[in-house]
Each structure stands twice: as structure tokens, then as C-alpha cells.
Amino acid sequence: NRVFRLEDYRPSPFRIPESHLTFELEPDATVVRAKLLFERADDTRADAPLVLDGDELELIEARLDGALLGADAFTAAPDRFELKAPPASGRFTLELVTRIVPSRNTTLMGLYRSGGNYCTQCEAEGFRRITYYLDRPDVLSVYTVRIEAKKSEAPLLLSNGNPVENGDLGGGRHYAVWHDPFPKPSYLFALVAGDLGVVRDRFTTMSGRPVELGIYVEHGKENRAGYAMDALRRSMRWDEEVFGREYDLDVFNIVAVSDFNMGAMENKGLNIFNDKYVLADEETATDTDFANIEAIIAHEYFHNWTGNRITCRDWFQLCLKEGLTVYRDHEFSADQRSRAVERIADVRTLRAHQFPEDQGPLAHPVRPRRYREINNFYTATVYEKGSEVVRMIRTILGPDDFRLGMDLYFARHDGDAATIEDFITVFEEVSGRDLSQFALWYHQAGTPSIAVTSNHDPKRGELVVEIEQSVPPTPGETRKRLMHIPLAFGLVGTDGRDVTYRSAEGATVENGVIHLRKRRHVIRFSGLNERPALSLNRGFSAPVTLTLEQKREDQLFLARNDSDPFSRWQAFTKLVSDALIDGSRRSRGQKPLEWPADLLQLAGDIATDGKLEAAFRALTLSLPSEADIAREIGSNIDPDTVHAARNGLVFAIAQANGERLAPVYDSLADMGPFSPDAASAGRRALRNTLLDYLATLPGGKERAAAHFTSASNMTDRAAGLSVLAHRHSGTEQAEQALEAFEARFGDNPLAMDKWFTIQAMVPGASTVDRVRALTAHPAYSGNNPNRVRALVGSFASGNQTGFHRPDGAGYRLLADVVIDLQQKNPQLAARLATALRSWRSVEPQRQAKAREALLHIAAVENLSTDVRDIVERTLA
Ligand code: DPP
Ligand code: ZN
To answer: What stretches pass through the bilayer (predicted)?
Structure first.
């Protein structure tokens, strides 16, 4: 199948200034009448035919300027419509009537049914499953949408833009008309029809425009939409205050649906959400759920400017809207919560998801140059690394020029389908800087690696820092160019404060940032009589892997004293990682585990340091995951030894500090009414993290059981259950807790997802069988993406010892699920299959089994493009 290449981009030969759509909704036969006004774009051949995209469409009728078209005037296949000789004037109206079957649409792309309602998902190429169209993001059109449906089945009729008209059609049917005055690409089209409850609010924009807000959920779930509404109002205000962006329609609606491939979708004026990212209350949602809701509500809302008002020229530019919008939602969360804690959490996510992608067979640049299936490029690289690149632009320019650049971007490109070059240019113009070398961050794949040594000369009062950069080869890119890497740093004196130096030579050093541009820099900091500790890549200013030759005493010192909390976390985590890598090696060699006493002591000191934010302590004490450690080890991994090492360190920290930890745990006991705010969530996080340690000590099982039983919110309850199930698997307490949870939440699918995930994550060889058995549980559904991800997805990506069972049973389970899903829901199946992407880094026996599983999938006949693309790239 076909490969799409960036260099093949050509502007569309036609524009569609107006699109008038009428939907006659029926679950088994929906008729779509599209009346499209076409204009030939002036710079093309006047005799070129008009070719429209389709996907599984059935054409009923075609009219040109009102006249029925004869069969010889066009060709229509399920995936393509061609008007052979468009009128010479170049301006004409084409009316196309198609029939589609929402009830049989299991791909969750186009128009489909979820929970008895109609909904749509059109990004990236789902609109062509609704009608024939120029389904590409650089064709912008003003949409008027008329929806007709049975009143009893669909009292609610929504689309993009503002409501203009509604009425009765007789025969129990009614209609509504929506008009969106902002030209938009087809991927932002949305329609929802059904019977839903609503929560309403109002927002007055900074210029005084009133906006009606609505969040639509299944009846009876309205009281779980309050937090999402609050997050929406805060997002709207924040975008005004921080980016000067005002909302632009009379209404803003959000609809929560239970069958959704992504987190949510930013359709103009009508966001459609996975209900997991709307519904929350203390009884059913964890603090993590609340934080995710806040972030995703903000993300989709922010797309109104970065994505909708300014969209992408083509799908290669996906990061133009996604990386930038992730950057904006990260900033929002940092402002709403604790900046340091958010940064640590974001970096953990980046390293857990983007680094393995960048270091494996699926590596691609933030702006890819080729794809076979665009659905497979909604990746951590495009999103998370894309956000890091924007963040680096701000680091290089400083906040004022960055804001000027953003203002210019909005002013210059409003209404455009833009490119990464457009984006970079505005920052070059406002700052007068040359960002051409920096732009490699968009064009070149792979995680740059930085090696650093430093040497202090007391006689000269000089600190000499040698820094070398390299970018490892990635698939299709063997030779790499040198990057412009902004490394934030500090030279930390004995009191923990940064010391000042007289001058720095050997690289551009400005505002606490070293700008690496060459392969090797030797930087001389002068005026330093005492040797400072080097704190490097502060705040993770550049997404690189850093090898810093540093004295252990400096690492311990920075972990205790660096004035930058992120750096303290980083220094501690580095010490822990090194210990865990060493522990894995010992475990592999069947040697006893040994841990440095100063590290155990440090962990206890952080846990009990009341001057540190609780959330920070919790994040620091939740040690790198087994997958993190495996990634650091890099090759020939035996996940069982990694597991043994990590468990061993948790136990050693608990043993060394247990007497200090228990009082802290007790002092954090839940008091007063629940609040999802960051400080309260931080206290719960710390208490729950401490429980995980204390659970390994005598009496720990009973403590965890009491924690679970007395929990008054889902955060504590799920944490208690998880500690019981993971640290005391198979015990009566664990089994009873699982049963109690099921009895209480059996009819709440989102809560049951936690139950599935906790069981899927039970370490050890027998979990494969448990996961297989759970696929037959009545609360499970192999058709619902949330269920599949909760059970099979978390098993494959989060359970190192279970998934990598030496006999390959974990890989086979994943392959079976992927094969079962690959036609029904190709997008979801392909996403699941990426869990095998790091197969070459495990030890040879497991590698062989993983390869078998991949080949087993590859051998399936009629493999969907999505899955074939992932499997073939993974095997290549
Ligand atoms: N819905 C996805 C997102 O907002 C794709 N646009 O990131
Ligand atoms: Zn997005």
C-alpha cells in the first residue's frame, strides 16, 4: 500500500467555499445529502477532473448544478468519486447523496453509534466515511448542517458552530440547523444526536461576549460533570490571560461518549470526549483522573486557536497543532497546580513513552516526512516531544519574545492551513535569531545524547566543562546533523545556592542556558575559587539523555540541596536508577542485593521532610518503573531481575526507614471533605506512596487492607487495592478486596477499568492467564477501547514480568487480541501492537518469542493498513 511523502505535497486543485450537509439519521441507513460549492483554484490545469475521497461509501445520486448526472459523467467507488469533466467556469455545485450504516461502524471513525447515540470522529480521515469530499486539512469550508431524526430517539441534535433553526417535521421526526461561520477542514466536523443529560453554564469573554456552555453526558451522570465544567471555565480564562486568545462562537459544547478511540477531539464548538476524561467524582475517580480531565479539557479547548483557527496544511504538520497545544496544556496545569511537580510528571511521561519510541524501530521526527497510515502518527513524539520543542523555543527566546512570536503567529496565520516553517519564522522575525539549526528538532528523529565531564582548577579558579553531543541513528536516518541544544544549568555552592562566575568561554552561555551547537564544547567558567556542583539540564530544558560524570557526593548533595526542585528530583532519580541497574545485574548473577546506606537514608529524609511539597515527595519516592529501568539498561534485558531489584530497593528503603515513615503515613490520614485540588491530591499521593513501602513490612498486609476498607474516595481505595493485589497477591485480603471492589462498582464501567488494570498489573507469570480469563468477565468488552486499554493495554505496556513471560505467553495474548481487533477497530489494534516495539532490547530467548508473535500477526490475511504498518516497521 501507498506511502505518503511530505515532498509530494501539492495544493488542492479545488476549493470548497461552502458545504451544506443534510443528515437523515437512521441507525441502519443514514442518508447524507452533501451540497458542495466548488471553485477551481486558479493555478491549476483547467481540464483536471475532480477527484474526491471516500471510504466504504455508497452513492445514491449525484447532481451537478441541480441536474442529475448520467453514469458516464462520473465514476463512484466506495473509496473514490470522480467528476470527469468539471464545468469550464470552474465554479459549480455538486450534490452527492450517500448512504451509510452507523450501527455497523465498529471502527469508531466517521459516523457511528455509542450508547444508543450518534456521534462522529473525523480526524484524521474519518470524514470520507460520511460523504465524498476533499478530505484534507488545507481545504477549508463554511459548513451549514441540517440534522433530521426521530424525536424519541434523538431529542438532542448538535453540530459545529451556532444553532440557527429547529422545528418539527411531522411523523415523530424533527430537525435542527447549525451554522459554523469559521471556515474549517473536514476533520473538525462533528455531529451528535441522541438522548443525553446536560450541565449548563455561561462564560463571559474578555471583550464581554456571552458564551453558553454545555456538557452533555448520559442521563444520571450529570453530577459527575461539574469538575469538567470548572476546568473548562478556567481554561477559557487562562487562554485569555496568558495568550490573549478569546473564544469566538455563541456556544461551546462538550459531549462525553463511552466508545472513543482517542482521549478527546477538538471539533469546532463541539468537542467530543471519551467519557473517561469528563466524568469524575470522589467516589469513582482518582486524583489522576481529575488531573487528566483538567488537562484534556484544556487541551481540546486550546485547540480552538492552535488547531482550528490556525490549522495544518497537511498531516505531516500534525505537531504544529499537537505539540503546541500540549505545550499550552502543560503550562496551564503548571499554573493551576505546582509548576515543579507538573514538570517532573511531564518529564516522567516523556521518558516513559517518547524515549522508547525515539530509541526503537518506530522512531520518527516530530515532523515526519513519510507515512503509510496517518493514524499511527498520533504519537508521543509528535505530542510530547513536539511540546518540548516549543518549550525550547521559549527557553531560547525568553518569555517576552516567545509571547511576541505567538502573537505574530496568531495575527499572521489566523484562517490559514500552516506549516512548521511558518511557525518557526515568526519566532525568528520577532527575536532576530537564526533558528535554522534549532529546526532540526522537528526534522531529525532520535534522542540526542550528551556526555559531560567537568574539572575544577582551584589555582586558576576555573571550572572546565566538556560537553559532547551525538544523535544516534534511527530507521532511515543513519547520518545525523549537529543540533542546537539549550542546556539550562546552575553551579551550586555549598549553601545550595547558585554561585556566580565571572565569565564563560567556549559556548554561548546566556540567562543560565548553555547553547550547544557544535559536536564538542569546552566551556571555561572563571572566577570560581571553590568547586561548585554542576546542576545540568535543569527543568529538563532539552529532551536528551545525559551522561554526566559526577562525583557521588555531588549527586547526593544536589539531591538534598539544589535550589531547583526539578534538579533535586533528577539527582535523586539518577542515584536510584544507578542502584537499580546495579541491583538488576546482581540479581541476574544470583548475587545478594546490596544498597548504599546513604541512598536509603536520603529516601527516608525526603519522605519525612515537611518543608517539601507532599506531591514532590510522592513523585520522588515512586521509584522509576520497571520499564524505566529496562530502558536505562537498554539491551539484553531480563525483566524478572529488574523486578527483583526494584522490589528489593522498595523493601530496603522501608526497612531502613519504616519507623520514620509510619508516623508520616498516619499524619496524612484523610480529614474533612474531599477536594480534588493539587495540595490535597499531593497529600493523598504521598500517603498512598508510603503505603506501598509500609506494606512490605510486618503488619503491612493488614495496614493495606485497613487502608482499602476505610478509604472514603477512589484515590485511596484504588491505591489500597493495588498495593494489596501487587504486594500481597493471592492472599485472602487481596482477594476479598478485589471482590468488594467488584461488588461495589460492577455497574460502573470506568471504575471497573481500574479493577481490570490493577489485576493486569499483578507482577508474575500467572497474570497472563488471569488477563485471558478476565476478557470473559461480564464487565469487559472487546469492542470498547477503554476496556481493552484498561485490561490488555496496561498488561502489555505496564506489566514487565507478566507480558515478558519467558515462554512468550504474554506476547501471544497480545497478538491474539490484536488479530481479533484489527479489522473491527484498526486504530485501536495498531496502538496495542506498539507494545512490542522494544522487543529487540529483551534477552535472546524472549526476543525470539516476541518475534514469533509479530510474525504471527504479520501472517494474517487482510491485515488492516494500520496494523501492517506498525508490525512491518517493528520487524524491519
Ligand atoms: N483528539 C486529539 C487531540 O486533541 C487529536 N486532535 O490531541
Ligand atoms: Zn490535540
So the answer is: none
- Separation of CA 264 and ligand 1 centre (Å): 6
Q: What is the pTM of this model?
A: 0.99
pLDDT of residue 48: 85
C-alpha grid cell for residue 49? 477532473
Could you tell me what percent of the chain has a pLDDT over 90? 98
Domain 753-876 has CATH 3.40.830.10: no
Q: What are the helix (H) ranges across 668-711?
A: 678-694, 700-710
Q: How confident is the model at residue 45 (pLDDT cuts 50, 70, 90)?
A: confident
Nearest CA to ligand 1 atom 6: 265
Q: What's the half-sphere exposure (Cβ side, CA atoms, 13 Å) at 652?
A: 23
Domains 4-195 and 460-536 share a fold: yes
The ligand 1 atom nearest the CA atom of 322: 7
Q: What are 525-564's pLDDT values in tens digits?
A: 999 999 999 999 999 999 999 999 999 999 999 999 999 8
> Nearest bound ligand to CA 827?
1
Q: Whose CA is nearest to atom 3 of ligand 1?
A: 265
The predicted structure's pLDDT at residue 44:
63
**Ligand 1: residues within 6 Å at CB?**
123, 262, 264-266, 299-300, 303, 322
- Distance CA(145)–CA(167), nearest Å, equals 14
Which three cell numbers mark 282?
470522589
Question: Distance of alpha carbon 171 from its chain centroid, rounded?
Answer: 45
| Angstrom distance (rounded) from CA 42 to CA 29 | 38
Whole-number Cα distances in Å, 717 to 282, 288, 707? 10, 13, 7
DSSP for residue 619 = H
Q: Given pLDDT bands bounded at 50, 70 and 90, which one contains residue 670?
A: confident
CATH architecture of the region 544-697:
Alpha Horseshoe (1.25)
In words, the CATH class of domain 460-536 is mainly beta
The gap from C-alpha 242 to its chain's centroid, in whole angstroms, comes to 23
CATH class of 4-195: mainly beta
pLDDT band with cut points at 50, 70 and 90 for residue 584: very high
pLDDT at 835: 98
Domain residue limits, the chain = 4-195, 311-443, 460-536, 544-697, 753-876
Going 419 to 420 to 421 to 427, the CA torsion angle's sign is positive
Q: Which atom of ligand 1 has the smallest separation from the CA of 265?
A: 1
pLDDT tens track for 351-405 = 999 999 999 999 999 999 999 999 999 999 999 999 999 999 999 999 999 999 9
* Mean pLDDT (whole number) for 470-476: 97
Distance, CA of 289 to CA of 585 (rounded, Å): 36
Average pLDDT over residues 227-252: 98
- Phi, psi angle pair for 202, to nearest 5°: -130, 155
Residue nearest to atom 1 of ligand 1 (CA): 265
Pick the CATH number of 311-443 from 1.10.3720.10, 1.10.390.10, 1.20.140.10, 3.50.50.60: 1.10.390.10
Please give the Cα distance from 92 to 86 (Å, whole number): 8
- Supply the residue whose CA is at minimum distance from atom 7 of ligand 1: 322
Ligand 2 center from residue 325 Cα (angstroms): 6
- Checking ipTM against 0.95, whether it exceeds it is yes
- 638-658 tens-digit pLDDT: 999 999 999 999 999 999 999
What's the confidence (pLDDT) of residue 672? 86
- Who surrounds ion ligand 2 at CB < 5 A? 322, 325
Ligand nearest to the CA of 320: 2
For residue 43, what pLDDT is reported?
65
Distance CA 799, CA 793 (A): 10
Ligand 1: which atom is nearest the Cα of residue 326? 7
Task: Read off the C-alpha cell for 370.
Answer: 513519510
Among the listed residues 123, 218, 282, 300, the single catalytic one is 300
Cα(265) to ligand 1 centroid in Å equals: 5
Q: Is 466 considered catalytic here?
A: no
* Atom 4 in ligand 1: residue holding the nearest Cα: 265
